Amino acid sequence: MKKTYSLLFASIFTASLITACSNEPSVSFTSNVKPIVDKHCAECHMTGGEGANASGFIVESYETLMKGTKYGPVIVAGDPLSSSLYRLISGKVDKSIEMPHSKEPLSSGEIAMVENWINQGAVK
Ligand code: HEC
Questions:
Q1: How far apart, in Å, are the Cα atoms of 54 and each of 9, 96, 97, 119?
Q2: What is the spatial distance between Cα 27 and Cα 97, in angstroms, rounded to a whole number?
Q3: What is the largest CA-CA distance in the chain?
Q4: Considering the chain, what is the average pLDDT of its residues?
Q5: Distance from the CA of 101 to the center of ligand 1, in angstroms?
C-alpha cells in the first residue's frame, strides 16, 4: 500500500514537472482561476459590491480582472511578486489590507494555482 502511494506520488510529481517545463500554458483563467475568485472575491468585487465600489476592481470576467483597479492593473503576466493581486492574497502584505478582506484566506493550493497562472502568462 505504502509503495503504491509513493509510486503514485512520484508519477504525479513527474507529470507536474513536465507540465511546468513545457511552454504550453496549462493553467487558465477560465478553468482554474475564475472558480477561485468566484468563491473568495465575488461577494465584494462584482459591480455594485463593497470592494468594487471602493477600488474599481471587478472580478466578473477575464477582461475586468485584467483591467485591475481604478489605478491600474493588478496582474503582471509572468511576475507574481509584481502582481498586487498575488501579494494581497498570499500573506505578503499587512493583515489590514489582505484579501479577501477579513475573511478566511485562500488555501495554499489556491494561492499556488494563482501563482502558476501568473507565471505561465496569465492567459484567458
Ligand atoms: C468582504 C469584502 C471583500 C472581499 C471578500 C474581497 N475584497 Fe478586495 N477589497 C474590498 C474592499 C472594501 C476594498 C477597498 C478598500 C481596501 O483597499 O482595503 C478592496 C480592494 C481590493 C483591491 C484593490 C487594492 C488596492 O491596493 O487598490 C484588490 C486588488 C482586491 N480587493 C482584490 C481582492 C481579491 C483578489 C479578493 C479575493 C481573493 C478580494 N479582493 C476579496 C473588499 C473585499
A1: 44, 15, 13, 28
A2: 27
A3: 54
A4: 90
A5: 6
In whole angstroms, how large is the CA radius of gyration of the chain? 16
Dist. CA 46–CA 61, nearest whole Å = 10
Instruction: Give, for ligand 1, the residue of 29, 34, 41 to mutate: max count of ligand atoms closer than 8 Å to Cβ.
Output: 41
Give the tens place of pLDDT for each residue, 58-109: 999 999 999 999 999 999 999 999 999 999 999 999 999 999 999 999 999 9
Q: Which residues contact 66 (CB under 8 A, 6 or more apart)?
A: 73, 75, 122
Please choose from 34, 44, 95 the residue to mutate so as to test ligand 1's pocket, defined by most ligand atoms within 8 A of CB. Answer: 44
Residue 115: which of 83, 67, 72 has the closest Cα?
83
Check if the beta carbon of residue 75 is closer than 8 Å to that of residue 68: yes
Residue with the smallest CA separation from ligand 1 atom 18 is 97
Mean pLDDT of 19-44: 87
CA 19 to chain centre: 18
